[in-house]
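Sample intake sheet
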Amino acid sequence: MMRAYELMVIIDGDVDDPKAQSFTKMVVDEIEKAGGSIHGKPNWWGKRPFAYPINKKEAGYYLVVECLADGGALDELERQLRLADEIVRHKLIRLPDAEAERRGMAVSA
């Protein structure tokens, strides 16, 4: 059963902008490789300062992606994000059904 997810990725602010933006393609490719689909366009927020230092870093690039995928299909993407040195933080959440419906991502069973 397809489920709605939101993924936020924070990339190290010391990375060059083009390399940081290349993570957008990597994330989209991995979601599609896992059988998922992107809802809308990936939302690139650009470089923003952190509220507090994370791993002695003061800023990072933010990327937010909404997608639909089967449960557990994004485990490999999460593993790759955990292993990538340039990724400061990432968070994948399953959207509640009401929120998915509000965003137009509801999937009928």
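Comment: Residues 17-33 form the longest helix (17 residues). The CA atoms of residues 34 and 73 lie 6 Å apart.
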